[in-house]
Specification:
six-stranded parallel beta sheet, six-stranded mixed beta sheet, alpha/beta, single chain, Rossmann fold, elongated, about 350 residues, 11 helices, 434 Repressor (Amino-terminal Domain), 3 domains
């Protein structure tokens, strides 16, 4: 071996040893397949190799890394960092290292991340808020994972052809809680602000809304991109149509709705009561504090990891969906409707 090659090998041993907290001799024993190393230490050394970007020795490449891909659409919406924290912590407790992958404009696509994670020999993947919930988006990379038999768990509803285990918030219960709250305050003109039309959780919320509200006029249901701007633009139509309350499919949409109310020279909740969905970080610090339907992120994140590990240990599990009941959190963005004779 050349002097430069020996130097690189020594540096690799030192970096991996430091990462794991063991001696370089221990790392060397693992890389050379020698006995005298516990299974936990051996797994930790192999994971450190993957995390640091070093290739495994040829004889060890067939083994899955103790890495788990966590694929999220963004970190701007506070619900996703909160979910990443719960799932990351639960994975670490079980000896896995999460690899966080988020889509950015002009950056890697969800399919790109899947290819990269497969190449890294990850043990499994957890997806939240991805293309699996969008009927019109590409799904080939999910189908590839199904063919490979790689353990995968999805957070919230997916398109019908993807047979993966899922943990979901019960969208029907969420809408029922919000609608019952608003009608108890005296609202009769209630609108529903959803994500894109091909978004499966939004479709579930719409079905529940129609089931509980009966005949729903077309203008009562509005679709928008999941963004502050989307919520703002669509709420201007809701206000113009004379609705006194709106149920939103996310807190970000709800904040856009509140902004639209203010830009129209009106006030929330006096002129429009607004209900969000998620109860993400700092929502109680908004003005007014947002009434919202809380997703049980802690329970769902831990269940997702348990389902993933169950797949790893058993080889395959039924593609079942665990439905978690949300909780209505009443704050200051909802109130009885302003009486017509009150001006």
């Amino acid at each position: 071996m050349s002097q430069s090659g020996e130097s690189a090998r020594t540096r690799r041993l030192a970096e991996v040893a430091k990462k794991v907290g063991v001696s370089e001799a221990t790392v060397s024993r693992v890389l050379n397949g020698r006995p005298g190393v516990s299974e936990a230490t051996r797994a930790a050394v192999l994971t450190a190799l993957d995390v640091l970007g070093y290739e495994r020795p040829t004889q060890l490449r067939g083994e899955r890394a103790r890495l788990v891909g966590l694929v999220l659409p963004e970190l701007g919406n506070p619900i996703f960092p909160a979910l990443a924290e719960v799932i990351g912590g639960a994975l670490a407790q079980r000896g896995f290292t999460p690899v966080l992958c988020t889509r950015t404009a002009g950056g890697l696509s969800e399919a790109d991340y899947v290819n990269m994670l497969v190449d890294q020999q990850v043990s499994g993947m957890v997806f939240a808020g991805g293309h699996y919930a969008e009927l019109d988006s590409p799904h080939e990379h999910y189908l590839r994972l199904m063919e490979l038999g790689l353990p995968v768990v999805l957070v919230n509803a997916c398109v019908p052809e993807l047979a993966f285990p899922r943990v979901s918030t019960d969208d029907a219960v969420a809408v029922e809680q919000a609608y019952t709250h608003l009608t108890s305050l005296g609202h009769e003109r209630i609108a529903l602000l959803l994500g894109p039309e091909d978004h499966v959780p939004s479709q579930r919320k719409l079905a529940a809304f129609r089931a509980i509200a009966g005949e729903v006029p077309d203008e009562a249901v509005q679709h928008a991109m999941f963004s502050l701007e989307g919520g703002h633009s669509v709420t201007t139509r809701i206000i113009a149509a004379g609705f006194t309350a709106v149920i939103c499919a996310s807190d970000v949409l709800a904040l856009g709705a509140v902004r639209a109310v203010r830009r129209a020279g009106l006030s929330a909740p006096e002129d429009l009561s607004v209900v969000g969905f998620d109860d993400s970080a700092f929502i109680n610090c908004t003005h007014p504090p947002l009434t919202t339907v809380r997703q049980p992120i802690e329970a769902m994140g831990r269940a997702a990891v348990a389902m993933l590990v169950n797949q790893m240990e058993r080889g395959s599990v039924p593609a079942e969906e665990l439905l978690y009941e949300p909780e209505l959190v009443v704050r200051g963005s909802t109130a009885p409707p302003r009486r017509a004779d009150a001006g």
